[in-house]
Write a structure and sequence with these properties.
heterodimer; A: alpha/beta; 16 strands; globular; B: Urease, subunit C, domain 1; TIM Barrel
């Protein structure tokens, strides 16, 4: 009797564990994979009809049409009639840092204080955020995830959307320093007088310049000590200034969050100053970029922009946000498209789709979510196009990935063939045909 | 400066309201007609006469004097209907009581809000202008036609059913329980607020009717043998609640979690209330069979989730699951941004759940029309229905398609070929400045639009 009970219990447990297992994201496949027959959109080198892409050791091994490159030990994915694209990159998110924005204990993108250059998005990155699988099955394979708030928010990271630790997912753990440009806007609740704004602006810029000068001096001092420590007293370490060393020597971009016309012009003037010629400056947000596109182009500053927001001014045309990336591109600005989202980074292809439809064109809009952001952040040797030797971040779609009527069929990240499920697909499978008698 | 502003307002209002109530005539030939309720008609013609669709077919000819539009390569579909909007409210929330059924959007309509024009540019012709979600039983809504620049009366959708907003879950419990320390602080309290007010309203009706009949008796008693009855004062709030119970007002209930959706259906079954719509309803998919069984409707976001806790366990497949389970579902915006591309929001149901294109289009036309009680008037291309249509440059579910023209009652309200940059009617000196969008390039959402103006009132 007892043994029957135990057997029944074991059977039940087995059943239950089976049911549980079905809830967990499946394991990815890894190894030698060949995608055959698709239109291959290389981005860097045109499109290849009936192309072949092989993946080995996490990287793209071959892109072309030579069937002999596919060894007998390759897992072949037949994709005739389908399309292969490099994985998309969203260059403006707080993915992995915020789980539920309205629940403060789950919000890790905004540290206390005004100057936080030593705060790393990489550290707060939660590899198990429910939003990560939801995002990656849309063809977005890597993102810039950024801290927010204050004058200097901290450092953004470029993260792959597959992995079990920040370490294994980081493409660049210190991809950019986020600076919120001091705004001279008024309107809404902001009722500062022009004089007050001017004064505050000058004070803030003065403090910023001083911070940068200190960082430059600190970097010089540290570099001198490091190159020849003999007989020198080791300078005291300063967390803020230490974190800014790579920024002031131009290795790490400084991402300036700036939106309105006046602020953009101020930021350009500041950027053009000879004191700041050592900086690698990128603008983010730039909602009114189209008003001053020529000036931005002349300053040679790349822009990270989105399209799905309402016009910034009541008298602006309804399509302005859609047209902003195209207007910037035509003026000669290097443009990357972003969402500015957390849980809905999956809408990146649609942000790009609106840019494509309103002046940018599909080909350039694809670049704006692949090679352009890779170049802006100096990771184009790894990502951004389908080329042999690059990391295998790519996806197969049934058609134009900007079209909601297309399906994203298979995603690869760092060579892993990613299970195409997420909380959203799991809930779909569980509830589509829910047994209505089990209530 | 002020004077100039007023002059502009006056000129604006009068110049546009002159045609606000016009019923126009137009003939579109050789277009793809997306009828919604019937098959797609290739190379089709459609005639709108004095605001009403009078002919649909192929090889029709235009009556003399009617404007003819070449629809070659273009798609004609019914105007999009947004079942959840706060597009042009003057105020959205009367947040100071858990029940404010007497409040209404009737005089909270701004006909000159430029967002109306932006919605027309997205092919939207009607919206359900809703009260916010601060209260368990909130204010009454107004169904509008987007006659931009007309008057409050000019914007009303004649013959639409009366509606009212209910709200469950986090919003009313935050505002009243957490914010002001009164009922409801929990979902338990939310249920009891509804039940107690319905009970009070029913008791009031008995007493009020008894009083009115006693009063009549007293007044008609010429011999003075009847004592004057103790008056029972008219109570507007309870009158509205009784109208809900009598089925004269359609309830649109802001809700997210599956359990609170079940709760409201239990309560409504107890009071015999039918024909209601769950708004947002992110977890409706978990109880789709129950919703279908009760004949309730849903109106959901295409993909919003995780911005607050009650939407964390939700899915972009919600609309598809509801649709597959036989629930009449619509896709709404609740946002002045999303309302510009509701076609795209509907298309997401094809991307995620592989819902059919025909059903996706129903979710922004005939389905919201059913939920607002206007399906006999708009929501499809059918002879006899009102001439609220949009002409698209391509398939309305494609991201590359643009709205070229939008008509309400056969009168053109948007034309891409004649689309000035500045479409304001009501020009304010504040417009010289950028709107107060939040700084930082990561926007991050933490609430639905239903809570606008609320947190200025309560301390959090």
């Amino acid at each position: 009797m007892k043994s029957i009970k135990i057997t029944a219990l074991l059977g039940f447990l087995l059943l239950f564990s089976g049911a549980l297992e079905a809830q967990i994201t499946d394991k990815p496949e890894y190894g030698k994979i060949a995608i055959i027959g698709a239109t291959v959109h290389t981005v860097s080198n045109g499109s290849i009809e009936q192309g072949i892409v092989t993946i080995h050791n996490g990287n793209i091994e071959y892109v072309g049409t030579d069937r002999s490159k596919v060894g007998s030990d390759y897992k072949v994915i037949e994709a005739t009639g389908k399309h292969v694209y490099p994985g998309f990159m969203d260059s403006g998110t707080s993915l992995g840092l915020v789980e539920i924005n309205a629940v403060p204990v789950t919000v890790d993108n905004r540290e206390v204080g005004n100057i936080n250059p030593n705060m790393l998005a990489f550290t707060a990155w939660n590899p198990h955020s429910a939003a990560i699988p939801v995002t990656r099955v849309s063809g977005v394979t890597h993102v810039l995830t950024a801290p927010q708030g204050g004058l200097v928010s901290g450092q953004a990271a470029i993260m792959d959307l597959w992995g079990y630790s920040p370490d294994s997912m980081a493409v660049d753990a210190t991809a950019g320093m986020v600076l919120n440009w001091p705004s001279v806007r008024s309107g809404g609740w902001n009722r500062r007088t022009p004089e007050q704004m001017e004064k505050q602006y000058k004070e803030t810029i003065g403090a910023l310049n001083k911070l940068l000068d200190n960082a430059r001096f600190y970097d010089q001092m540290m570099s001198e000590f490091e190159s020849n420590p003999n007989g020198k007293v080791k300078p005291e370490k300063n967390q803020h200034l230490e974190a800014m060393r790579e920024m002031v020597n131009g290795q790490t971009p400084i991402i300036i969050s700036v939106s309105s016309e006046k602020d953009i012009l101020n930021a350009i003037e500041w950027s053009n100053h000879e004191d700041h010629s050592d900086l690698n400056i990128v603008f983010a947000g730039v909602e009114e970029g189209w008003r001053v596109a020529e000036e931005i182009a002349e300053a040679g500053i790349p822009c990270l922009v989105s399209t799905l927001y309402t016009p910034t001014r009541a008298y602006d045309h309804v399509h302005r946000p859609y047209e902003n990336p195209g207007a910037l591109m035509k003026a000669g600005v290097k443009v990357a498209i972003m969402t500015g989202e957390v849980e809905n980074v999956r809408n990146l292809p649609f942000n790009a789709g609106y840019a494509a439809a309103y002046g940018m064109g599909t080909e350039e809009a694809v670049k704006a979510v692949t090679i352009n952001p890779a170049q802006i952040f100096g990771v184009d040797h790894l990502l951004g196009s389908l080329e042999a030797g690059k990391q295998a971040n790519l996806f197969i779609s049934t058609g134009d990935p900007f079209e909601p009527l297309s399906q994203i069929e298979q995603v690869f990240i760092a060579g892993f063939q990613i299970p195409m499920d997420s909380r959203h697909t799991q809930l779909f499978e569980e509830f589509l045909d829910r047994d209505a008698t089990q209530n | 400066m002020k004077k100039i502003t007023y002059i502009f307002i006056i000129i604006g209002v009068f110049s546009v309201s002159a045609f606000a109530q016009d019923k126009g005539s137009v003939f579109i030939e050789n277009a793809t007609l997306v009828t919604v309720t019937d098959d797609i008609i290739e190379n089709g013609d459609i005639l709108i006469t004095n605001g009403v669709i009078t002919q649909i077919g192929t090889d029709l000819s235009a009556p003399a004097g009617v404007t003819v539009i070449d629809g070659t390569g273009k798609f004609v579909m019914p105007g999009i209907i947004d079942a959840h909007s706060h597009l042009n409210t003057v105020s959205t929330n009367e947040a100071r009581n858990p029940v404010t059924a007497e409040v209404t959007m009737e005089e909270s309509i701004d006909p000159n809000e430029v967002s109306i024009y932006r919605a027309l540019a997205g092919g939207v012709t009607s919206i359900h202008l809703m009260h916010g979600s601060a209260n368990v039983i909130g204010g009454q809504g107004e169904t509008l036609k987007l006659r931009y620049g007309s008057t409050q009366d000019g914007m009303r959708f004649d013959g639409a059913k009366r509606t009212i907003k209910f709200a469950l879950g986090e919003n009313p419990t935050r505002v009243h329980g957490q914010g002001n320390g009164i009922l409801p602080r929990t979902r338990m309290g939310v249920e009891q607020i509804i039940r107690s007010h319905f009970d009070e309203a029913l008791d009031y009706r008995v007493k009020r009717e008894a009083y009115l009949s006693a009063k009549q008796k007293y007044e008609s008693d010429r011999r003075g043998r009847t004592a004057p009855p103790v008056p029972v004062a008219k109570n507007l709030r309870y009158d509205v609640l009784n109208d809900i119970i009598d089925g004269e007002i359609l309830v649109h209930c802001h809700s997210y979690r599956a359990d609170e959706i079940l709760m409201l259906m239990r309560v409504f079954n107890d009071y015999g209330i039918k024909n209601y719509t769950f708004q947002h309803a992110n977890e409706a998919f978990k109880v789709a069979p129950e919703i279908a069984k009760n004949g309730a409707y849903t109106s959901v976001f295409a993909d919003w989730w995780a911005y607050k806790f009650e939407v964390y366990y939700s899915t972009a497949f919600n609309a598809t699951i509801l649709n597959e389970n036989g629930v009449t579902n619509s896709i709404n915006s609740d946002s002045n941004e999303l309302i510009r591309h509701l076609n795209h929001e509907a298309a997401k149901t094809v991307r995620y759940g592989q819902t059919s294109e025909a059903d996706a289009l129903k979710m922004i036309t005939i389905n919201p029309a059913m939920q607002l009680g206007i399906a006999d008037k708009v929501g499809s291309l059918e002879v006899g229905k009102q001439g609220d249509i949009a002409i698209w440059s391509g398939h309305p579910l494609s991201i590359y398609s643009k709205v070229e023209q939008t008509y309400i009652d056969g009168t053109k309200y948007f034309d891409l070929a004649n689309d000035p940059v500045d479409m304001r009617i009501d020009i304010s000196s504040d417009d010289n400045y950028e709107e107060s969008f939040t700084t930082g390039f990561i926007k991050g959402r933490e609430a639905d639009a239903c809570m606008s103006d609320v947190f200025q009132l309560i301390q959090e």
